[in-house]
Every structure is written in structure tokens, then in C-alpha cells.
TrEMBL record:
<dbReference type="InterPro" id="IPR029058">
    <property type="entry name" value="AB_hydrolase_fold"/>
</dbReference>
<dbReference type="GO" id="GO:0006508">
    <property type="term" value="P:proteolysis"/>
</dbReference>
<feature type="signal peptide">
    <location>
        <begin position="1"/>
        <end position="18"/>
    </location>
</feature>
<keyword id="KW-0645">Protease</keyword>
<dbReference type="GO" id="GO:0008239">
    <property type="term" value="F:dipeptidyl-peptidase activity"/>
</dbReference>
<dbReference type="InterPro" id="IPR008758">
    <property type="entry name" value="Peptidase_S28"/>
</dbReference>
<keyword id="KW-0378">Hydrolase</keyword>
<keyword id="KW-0732">Signal</keyword>
<dbReference type="GO" id="GO:0004180">
    <property type="term" value="F:carboxypeptidase activity"/>
</dbReference>
<comment type="similarity">
    <text>Belongs to the peptidase S28 family.</text>
</comment>
<keyword id="KW-0325">Glycoprotein</keyword>
<protein>
    <submittedName>
        <fullName>Putative prolyl oligopeptidase</fullName>
        <ecNumber>3.4.21.26</ecNumber>
    </submittedName>
</protein>
<dbReference type="GO" id="GO:0004252">
    <property type="term" value="F:serine-type endopeptidase activity"/>
</dbReference>
<dbReference type="GO" id="GO:0070008">
    <property type="term" value="F:serine-type exopeptidase activity"/>
</dbReference>
<keyword id="KW-0121">Carboxypeptidase</keyword>
<dbReference type="Pfam" id="PF05577">
    <property type="entry name" value="Peptidase_S28"/>
</dbReference>
Amino acid sequence: MMSPCLLVFLFFISTVSATPHLLRRRLSESARYLTKEELWFPQTLDHYSPYDHRKFQQRYYEFLDHFRIPDGPVFLVICGEYSCDGIRNDYIGVLAKKFGAAVVSLEHRYYGKSSPFKSLATKNLRYLSSKQALFDLAVFRQNYQDSLNAKLNRTNADNPWFVFGVSYPGALSAWFRLKFPHLTCGSLASSAVVLAVYNFTEFDQQIGESAGVECKAALQETTRLIERKLVTNGKALKASFNAADLEIDGDFLYFLADAAVTAFQYGNPDILCKPLVKAKKDGEDLVDAYAKFIKEFYLGTEGESTQDYNQNNLKNAAITENSSGRLWWFQVCTEVAYFQVAPSNDSIRSSKVDTRYHLDLCKNVFGEGIFPDVDATNIYYGGTKIAGSKIVFTNGSQDPWRRASKQISSPNMPSYTITCHNCGHGTDMRGCPQSPFNIEGNEKNCTSPDAVHKVRQKIIEHMDLWLSQCQDTGRTCI
Ligand SMILES: *[C@@H]1O[C@H](CO)[C@@H](O)[C@H](O)[C@H]1NC(C)=O
Ligand SMILES: *[C@@H]1O[C@H](CO)[C@@H](O)[C@H](O)[C@H]1NC(C)=O
Ligand SMILES: *[C@@H]1O[C@H](CO)[C@@H](O)[C@H](O)[C@H]1NC(C)=O
Ligand SMILES: *[C@@H]1O[C@H](CO)[C@@H](O)[C@H](O)[C@H]1NC(C)=O
Ligand SMILES: *[C@@H]1O[C@H](CO)[C@@H](O)[C@H](O)[C@H]1NC(C)=O
Ligand SMILES: CC(=O)N[C@H]1CO[C@H](CO)[C@@H](O)[C@@H]1O
């Protein structure tokens, strides 16, 4: 299962492992984060219960180096479906410097060290939802403002806030401004998946478009060959992909599809397409070429693990470093779906990755009665008809997730597409490729740095305007 932005974080985790170049690693590690110093906040477990007053400890971070005391803006960077290990020094570092902003970031409930329970059994996951998460952010925002006021010895002051997020946190960022407009002057919703989609066939179609004619044809032929081999000699086939542990064929096929997804999503299309197209031209075995890509790049460089695709493993309710997969699947299976199914015609992924596969996974991993109500989610937030204001939407042209984002501007909600060969998920914040990490979101290696630069200028213009309007509303600064 590829969550919208899980992979990038897996990559970080995997780069922290021991290597001989300890000193250099420490330096680059500290350059990657504005801060990693953990702070804790007592959060309400159930914001919607009239009588349940239980609390849990929620992790957060603050970075004040650039803060223009006392009335600079506060940037709230929303963390999502992964362990939030600090505030990363992506483009937010540049923006904070530019605006004299304090930066704070709250870990999403249940993920990382912010689990309310010692076990992630399905019954304990009942408070895991985007609605609760948004309320967490609101309560945290208010509380942080109070503590800032106390620190600065003032009362009733309100700094101008701005929220940021990429991917699912991008959707949270848009929804936060929608539901709590009095708590933020505006929002950046980068690659924000605001539309819950049940059968997300457009995802596979976008992969086809991003791949281009030749690579798409090679990928489709590879899928057909793999499907055939799976029937005749499945065990040997899986072993050749270092994926022998994926006993359920659907899990294996999903894993193979997802590996290609990440190449386009995170700005590395050539690593996939060049060798595959070459193999086809040279009459070499496409399955071997694809296995090489999976083993060297996806499992190797990117540090992915087949465990994240293994339903038997996703059932594990113990809290481990690998729990994010289970937690995200729960959100998928209850709220947002984004089922990445094969379209009925012209698909790249195997047609066996269908709606049934996803529904069976939900039932198998979480139990009877667990399936997503996307209609309810879209009624609650509005999908792409979101009735918000002062939200900037951005998308990368090659990102399969863009089809679940708001790609057309409407009054007070501009939408920008960053178009280039390796512009994917969250390019405005992350530069290119989107994995591995670029310090300060450096855009030099985007095939069109100018496309990124132009959209960033637009973001800054909107921020400038909305932050200044916020200060004009009579909300006091001091
Ligand atoms: C806080 O403000 C009060 C009232 O203006 C003043 O008496 C006090 O000395 C201030 N404390 C600090 C730490 O600045
Ligand atoms: C999703 O696809 C399945 C299988 O093709 C179909 O039965 C179902 O009606 C579709 N559901 C929606 C909401 O589109
Ligand atoms: C988490 O996944 C990694 C990579 O597959 C594995 O090496 C590690 O043992 C797993 N940890 C736990 C606690 O399961
Ligand atoms: C199937 O896809 C091909 C290629 O995109 C297209 O030319 C054809 O019209 C499609 N057929 C149907 C029935 O949608
Ligand atoms: C850009 O790519 C080159 C070559 O791969 C690499 O050496 C360099 O570090 C990259 N620069 C940035 C800013 O990512
Ligand atoms: C605002 C903007 O750039 N919108 C474009 C985003 O992408 C869609 C789909 O490719 C285009 O149709 C929009 O014009």
C-alpha cells in the first residue's frame, strides 16, 4: 500500500542506520531538520464525546530561530501518516526565514510516539480519523498561542497563523482552514488529496500519462508477463523479486504496481523507464528488468519493505516502528479509500488489483464491517467542491495523486500545477526528485527549476496578502 507520502519518511528512517561516515552523517542529519527536539502536549482523546475526558500525550516540535518577536507569524506544519520525527528543513525553512516565522509541528494522533493506546487492535482505533486529527490541531493551535503569550508576558494577543501540509496532511491543511477559519490566516495544500475516491482508476491512468507511450507499453507488457508466470510458477517468480513472503497474490501484484507508482510520484521516472524501454528494444526479458528495478531501487535505495504489503503483517496490532502501514490502511478502509484499482481498459497494474482485493484486505486486516464510506467523507468536507477560502492548492504534473486534488482554481482558492518531467508529489515544498530529500526543497534538479520557482513566488504573494489581511481584522498583535 503506498500511502501518499509514507515512502519519503521511510527513506529518512533507513538513512539513519549506521555507516562509517558518522560525522558527515550527523551534519547532514542536522541540516535535514530544523529541530528534532521532542515536546509533549496533553491532548483530548475524543473531541466528540460529552463525557469522555481521557487525554493522551501528543508529540510536537517548535523552531523559533527565525521568529520575529513578538508578532511574527506562526507556521503550523501538519504531520501525517508516519512517525513525525522533527520539523524537516524543506522549503518551509526558506519561508520561515523570509517571514520571520515561528514553526511548530504536531504529530498525527496514533502515529509515531502519539498513540493513545498500547495496542493498535481495531477496537482501539476508533478515535483515529481526520476529524479528530483536525480538532487536535485546533486545540493545539489555541494552546500554543496561549503559552506563547505567557512566555511574552501578554494576554489576548493572536499572532497570524498559516498552516502547511503535503499529501494527506495537505488535505488536512485545506480542511483545517475550512473548518477552523478563525484559527488560521490561510493554508498551503500541497498535493492535497481532498477528494475521497472509492474506485481510484484515474490514479493508474495518470501513471500511464506520466510514463509516456513507450514506457507505458513496456510496463503493460511486463504486467501481462508477470500475470502469466504467477499462474505457472508463482513461488519462483516471487522469489526473483525478493518477495517470497507475499503469499497472497493480490499483495504481490499490489507491491509490484506500487513500486512503479513511487518512481513517478517522487520524481524518479527515468530510473524505472530507461532500463525497461531499453530491455524491450534489446529483446531482453522485461520481467528480469523489472525485478532489477524493484530490488535495486525500490527495496534497495528507497528502503521499502515487502512487509508493508503483507496482510499478515498488517494485522499485527503491536506498536512497532512499522505500524504506520496498518494505521494508514485503517484510514483508507474507513474514511478515504483511494482504492488504487485497475481501470477496466488499458491499465498498467494487474486487473487483479481490483475493488474486491481492497475490500477483502480491509476485512481481513481489521475485521467484519470495516469498509470506507467515501460519500460521508465528501459530504463532510466537500471534496473538490470544498467551500473554503485562502487556500493555495499545488500539484506536480507527474503525480498520480493529483487526480484526487483540486486542480482548478476558484475564487480565493488558487490552484497551480508545477509541470516538469520529474515534478511529483509536493514538489513545491520538496524540490526534485521528491525522494531522496533536498535541503530547503532545492529545485535545481527539477527538469524545470523555473516552473517550481514561479509557483513558489505565487505562494509567497498569497501568503503576504493573507497574513497582512489577517492582521487588519482587529485581531491584536500585542
Ligand atoms: C509582565 O507584565 C506585567 C504588567 O505589565 C509587569 O508588571 C511584569 O513585570 C512583566 N513581567 C515580565 C517578566 O516581563
Ligand atoms: C467500484 O468498482 C466495482 C467493481 O468494478 C463496482 O462493482 C462498484 O460499483 C464501483 N463502485 C463505485 C462507487 O464506483
Ligand atoms: C520493521 O521493518 C523492517 C524492514 O522490513 C524490519 O527489518 C524490522 O525488523 C521491522 N521491525 C519490527 C519491530 O517488526
Ligand atoms: C481503451 O483504451 C484505448 C487506449 O487508451 C482506447 O484507444 C480505446 O478507445 C479504449 N476502449 C474503450 C472501450 O474504452
Ligand atoms: C542534483 O543531482 C546531482 C547529480 O545527481 C547531485 O550530485 C546533486 O547533489 C543534486 N543536487 C541537489 C540540490 O539535489
Ligand atoms: C490551475 C491549473 O493549472 N489547472 C490545471 C491543472 O491540471 C488540470 C488537468 O491536467 C488542467 O486541466 C488545469 O488547467
